[in-house]
Design a protein that fits this description.
The chain is an alpha/beta fold. The chain has 15 helices and five strands. The chain starts with 10 loop residues before the first helix and ends in a 6-residue tail after the last helix.
């Protein structure tokens, strides 16, 4: 039942809807093991309010809560039958990214992975972290330009407090103390967002703590580290022990590994998408939407579904 304004729904219908939705939520929790806390957060009410609503003790707008719960349950059901997001799949790119991580980890070197977006760098880095619990993975963003910002993220990963009133050298000392003697690997993804000082601080921590460090990001990472030969980058650039330039060149074997046996025609289309700007990420989006369209059209993926998916993703119509 879709959400409806209180003024247009009788009290009897409201009560029936609340009772049915409450029972559906209880069954969902018993079946999935999902916590009330997580559900309450998803529907933007307090955990206490949801608990009271489930026990039929809520003194607020029970019908409004029921509408939120029903919307959540409908969305959860839709997600359960939607084509699954492609998880980690070993490809030629992922193997090389994993090699960079392993080399830097074992030899306590600095590794550099840079190149085209959408080629699976992040997924491979996360896979390495999942295989090696002692590795520390941090995804940088525009707020990480300063040393203080990236140090705060790393200290949090190590369970250490970042005290805003401390001087920079104290944060560096704290991080070096936590990492020295561990031989751990720090992976900084989207490292193009790190400023010059942040990169220099990470080089210093690598040297002092004798740990592995992997910097990964787009082509700007290499340009920044190379620094056109300037002295300020020389110490960092000279310390890079292994580097990998990820180019927009995806073999058909990688596409097959991700998409499976979709037929020669669909494989050809997906291979072409994978070698256009956006790389494997774009290809996976086309594949996922194409499969969803195929699900409403007999279930067998065909080129027409991929063509429609492509048009929809670039802003065109389904026609």
């Amino acid at each position: 039942m879709a959400s409806a304004a209180r003024s247009t729904v009788s009290d009897g219908v409201q009560t029936e809807f609340i009772v049915e939705t409450r029972a559906a939520l209880v069954a969902h929790i018993e079946r999935t093991g999902e916590t009330q806390t997580a559900i309450a957060k998803a529907i933007a009410i307090s955990g206490a309010a949801l608990s009271q609503w489930i026990r039929d003790e809520y003194m607020g707008d029970s019908f409004g809560v029921a509408n939120k719960v029903r919307s959540y349950l409908d969305l959860t059901a839709a997600r359960a039958v939607a084509p699954k997001v492609v998880g980690f799949v070993e490809t030629s790119v992922s193997r090389e990214v994993l090699t960079v991580c392993s080399f830097a980890h074992v030899n306590r070197e600095i590794g550099l992975v840079y190149g085209e977006a959408g080629m699976g760098k992040t997924m491979a880095l996360r896979e390495y972290r999942s295989q090696h619990p002692d590795a520390i993975y941090v995804r940088c963003d525009p707020s990480c330009a300063t040393p203080q910002a990236v140090l705060e993220l790393l200290l949090a990963e190590l369970g250490r407090k970042y005290r805003t009133n401390d001087l920079l050298h104290r944060h560096i000392k704290s991080l070096v103390e936590a990492l020295s003697g561990t031989g751990r690997l720090v992976i900084l993804d989207e490292a193009q967002f790190l400023g010059v000082k942040a990169l220099e601080v990470m080089r210093s921590i690598h040297d002092s703590a004798e740990i592995g460090l992997v910097l990964a990001g787009n082509l700007e990472v290499y340009a920044r580290l190379h620094g056109e030969g300037t002295a300020q980058f020389a110490q960092l650039f000279s310390r890079i022990g292994i580097r990998r330039h990820v180019k927009l060149s995806v073999p058909e074997e990688d596409v097959f590994s991700i998409a499976g046996d979709v037929g020669a025609e669909c494989l050809k289309v997906l291979h072409a998408r994978a070698n256009e700007r956006g790389g494997l990420r774009r290809m996976v989006k086309v594949l996922r939407l194409g499969r969803e369209l195929a699900g409403t059209d007999g279930g067998v993926l065909a080129r027409k579904h991929l063509d429609v998916a492509e048009r929809m993703l670039v802003g065109g119509s389904r026609k």
